[in-house]
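Researcher: We plan to redesign the surface later, but first we want a full-length starting point. Tokens attached.
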């Protein structure tokens, strides 16, 4: 049901990880909030089943984006899954909870973003979190989001850890306590063996609040802007066009693809680009859509003589067994262990991440062999130097934007991935894998030189699903929002999602997105209190 002509204190665009947090926090004290989500409710069975996450790819809960041909990746157009349902990407991701390295946030502060250093953001991480293993330093216990360890990890996961320690890596029992380096089990956003998405944690428990309205199937087509102020939004739902007003603010939480797209459709962005599409310029912000950063996966894949893997987890019988008996391989996560290492001992922080999967994982799991068992190690360059952009394909809000990550434009990015493949092979070559190691499928035994490994990376690497940075925070000429996440030049408009990161965090980006939303809520409420105090003083 539409809400045409109504007014709310806050209109939030996108019910993903950030949007669900904002809807919860801003409606706590009685403010009226409208949350608009382009996708439908999160009712697909596979959403709740951890090991079935790749079954959600190219489904109705996925925006199903593709990049432009990438020169650095043999001209390939890469598939980019993005969540299109309540919970957004937290409803289709691999549920890994990684905050990043403390230096990530200190770098943000050093770039001029006051209040975004590690000690500043740590309370925001803790505020969201209910750390199921129990009280622990730098973890929260009272938050809505359940964070836990793997419930039923495969034995191969422990084999990976043993092998990595054999090669000289240290064991790390908590990647999120401020010391990231080493190998260990990942923390996961799961509860009772099921996915615990942003919708599960933050939205559904408070949908009975009379001042909170959530609409699905409602795609925002424009932010209404008058006299340099955002006044509301226009959206389409069931073929009908609706307009609503925002008395306080419009908050964009549509992600690193859709937030810059919607800003540009609304006249906020590079003036020349907007004029190419006959869009009236409301604010000439050249940084909108620029500064795109993402993590790449470069995999080594092996056959496994151990048949206790996830490679039969998507069979009909296993799905039935999970649903009826609440047991079986689907309770496992596709990536249960991993690690963070430095490719150069002189580095101040790890620059390489491993994800270990007790299964084949080839092209997002979509091109796995039809039979047999395997295991995979994905290597990721944590701080890519390459920068891409999001631009408009047309002024039609239902056209996909142009996504050009410009992968491997910087030679250093390729160098780290090549080293990652080498180190992953070294781990698999350790004696811990002797009883389970089968034939190397990717890259294959005939691929040995750096040039051959580079060719493998260019031919097979794909996204780790971490696009960020396209509405970056800062005060330079390419910044889109200030350190309170307010859009430069437009009052009453903020962006509060992964697009505001000036530089990508070192690891999986879902946890930092929750933190950004918590920080946005705190800044918005601080602004409200300041205004209220000012009015009271005047009276």
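Model: Full-length starting sequence:
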């Amino acid at each position: 049901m539409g809400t045409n002509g109504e007014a709310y204190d806050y209109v939030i665009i996108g019910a993903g990880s950030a949007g669900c947090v904002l809807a919860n926090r801003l409606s706590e004290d009685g403010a009226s909030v409208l949350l608009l989500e382009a996708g439908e409710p999160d009712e697909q069975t596979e959403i709740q089943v951890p090991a079935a996450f790749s079954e959600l790819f190219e489904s109705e809960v996925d925006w199903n984006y593709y990049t432009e041909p990438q020169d650095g990746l043999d001209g390939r157009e890469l598939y980019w899954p993005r969540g299109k349902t309540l919970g957004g990407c937290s409803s289709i991701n691999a549920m890994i909870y990684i905050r990043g390295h403390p230096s990530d946030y200190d770098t943000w502060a050093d770039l001029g973003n006051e209040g975004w250093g590690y000690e500043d953001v740590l309370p925001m991480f803790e505020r969201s979190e209910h750390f199921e293993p129990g009280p622990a330093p730098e973890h929260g216990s009272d938050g809505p989001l359940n964070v836990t360890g793997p419930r039923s990890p495969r034995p191969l996961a422990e084999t990976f850890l043993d092998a990595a320690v054999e090669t000289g890596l240290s064991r790390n029992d908590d990647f999120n306590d401020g010391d990231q380096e080493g190998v260990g089990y990942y923390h996961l956003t799961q509860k009772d063996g099921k996915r615990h998405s942003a919708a599960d944690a933050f939205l559904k428990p408070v949908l009975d609040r009379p001042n909170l309205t959530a609409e699905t199937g409602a795609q925002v087509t424009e932010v209404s802007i008058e006299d340099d102020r955002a006044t509301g939004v226009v959206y389409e739902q069931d073929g009908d066009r609706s307009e609503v007003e925002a008395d306080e603010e419009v908050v964009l939480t549509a992600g690193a693809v859709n937030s810059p797209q919607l800003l540009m459709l609304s006249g906020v962005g590079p003036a020349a680009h907007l004029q190419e599409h006959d869009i009236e310029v409301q604010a000439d912000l050249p940084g909108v859509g620029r500064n795109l950063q993402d993590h790449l996966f470069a995999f080594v894949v092996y056959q496994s003589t151990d048949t206790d893997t996830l490679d039969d987890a998507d069979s009909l019988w296993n799905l039935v067994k999970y649903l009826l008996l609440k047991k079986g391989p689907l309770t496992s996560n596709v990536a249960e262990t991993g690690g963070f290492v430095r490719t150069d001992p002189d580095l101040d922080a790890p620059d390489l991440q491993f994800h270990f999967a007790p299964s084949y994982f080839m092209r997002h799991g979509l091109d796995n062999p039809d039979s047999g068992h395997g295991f995979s190690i994905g290597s990721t360059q944590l701080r890519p130097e390459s920068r891409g952009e999001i631009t408009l394909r047309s002024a039609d809000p239902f056209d996909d934007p142009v996504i050009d990550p410009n992968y491997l434009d910087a030679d250093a990015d390729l160098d780290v991935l090549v080293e990652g493949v080498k180190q992953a092979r070294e781990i698999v070559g350790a004696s811990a894998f002797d009883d389970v190691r089968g034939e190397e499928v990717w890259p294959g035994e005939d691929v040995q030189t750096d040039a051959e490994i580079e060719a493998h990376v260019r031919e097979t690497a794909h996204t780790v699903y971490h696009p960020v940075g396209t509405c970056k925070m800062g005060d330079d000429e390419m910044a889109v929002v200030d350190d309170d996440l307010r859009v430069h030049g437009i009052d009453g408009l903020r962006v509060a999602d992964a697009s505001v990161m000036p530089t990508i965090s070192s690891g999986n980006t879902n946890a930092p997105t929750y933190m950004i939303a918590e920080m946005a809520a705190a800044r918005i409420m601080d602004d409200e209190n300041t205004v209220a105090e000012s009015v009271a003083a005047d009276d």
